[in-house]
Design goal:
By secondary structure, this protein is of the alpha/beta class. Helix content is 26%, strand content 29%. The protein is flat, with a radius of gyration of 21 Å.
Length: 292
């Protein structure tokens, strides 16, 4: 997997009281870590943002980040992406600077803002729900998608089956984009993993932009963490009608979802989930009538 993972020697402490642990409580072993490195995003020659991410799918990350910032929303607005020269102390190319060329008629954002995004931060500068609504070019509220409750509940397990970097490291988030067919069966379109949950979503959205799929009507975004305001924002700007998370949403995330007509589900654990906004999209299961 190249620079996605890194192997390190560690000291493992085993304190379970077993005979082997009593004799050798500290063991030397090799562990696998998810790589985290900075990525500088440039618009032309102007520096726009630095984000901490797991290397890989960097062009998707940059494209998705620009969608999430409201800078672009169609593939034609993004003319090109390329890695710029950059070397570490050993003279090895780092591939940690990406230059995006936008179409001449695309207004440049305030590059003096110098957005810094950590792997745990996604919004960094947006002040209100109203600001998000003004920058959105899609209307998830009008999306006619309806999804069976059992199908929605099955998505975390489908996501988990494809989390290869998590299998190796246990240290990355995942975002999976599912298309719900006319037969109600979910199909995984794209899955991305990253130390930053916001980066994982940006990589999915960037992939969709570059494939010419925006707005992402009839889709569900399943994430491995919580449903934050930032993730709802990213879903809204990509035209995704349903966001499902294995953990809780925040209050502001729910308010933003309601304002933009998104469905937000949380605590999705295979056999149950909570719907915090947009419950009308969920097809309720039929109650089981006990036999006499």
């Amino acid at each position: 997997m190249g620079r996605v993972i890194q192997r390190r020697k560690v000291h493992k402490y085993v304190l379970d009281g077993s005979p082997g642990a009593l004799e050798y409580p500290v063991r030397h072993r090799e562990d696998v870590l998810a790589v985290e490195e900075p990525l500088e995003i440039r618009l032309g020659t102007l520096s726009y943002s630095v984000t901490m991410r797991t290397p890989g799918d960097d062009f998707d990350l940059v494209a998705g980040f620009l969608v999430s910032e409201g800078v672009i929303w169609t593939p034609g607005q993004l003319v090109s992406l390329r890695f710029c020269a950059g070397e570490d102390e050993n003279g090895v190319q780092t591939f940690n600077v990406v230059e995006a060329q936008l179409r001449p008629d695309v207004p440049l954002p305030d590059t003096g803002r110098k957005v810094y995004t950590s792997s745990s931060c996604g919004i960094c500068g947006t002040d209100s729900i109203e600001a998000v609504r003004k920058s959105s070019h899609f209307t998830p509220e009008a999306d006619p998608l309806e999804i069976d409750a059992q199908v929605l509940a099955s998505l975390p397990a489908l996501l988990r089956k494809s989390q290869r970097v998590f299998d190796d490291t246990g240290g990355v988030h995942a975002a999976g984009l599912f298309k719900i067919g006319d037969d109600g069966v979910p199909r995984l379109l794209c899955l991305r993993e990253d130390v930053g949950r916001h980066n994982a979503v940006d990589k999915v959205v960037g992939w969709a932009l570059r494939e010419g799929l925006l707005p992402l009507t009839g889709t569900v975004l399943q994430v491995s963490g919580r449903a934050s305001f930032e993730l709802v924002q990213k879903a809204a700007l990509a035209g995704i009608p349903v966001l499902s998370a294995v953990s809780a949403p925040s209050s502001l995330a729910v308010e933003l979802a309601e304002a933009n007509g998104l469905t937000v589900a949380g605590f999705s654990r295979g056999t149950s989930f909570n719907v915090y906004a947009g419950d009308s999209r969920i097809l309720r299961p039929q109650p089981v009538v006990p036999s006499a």
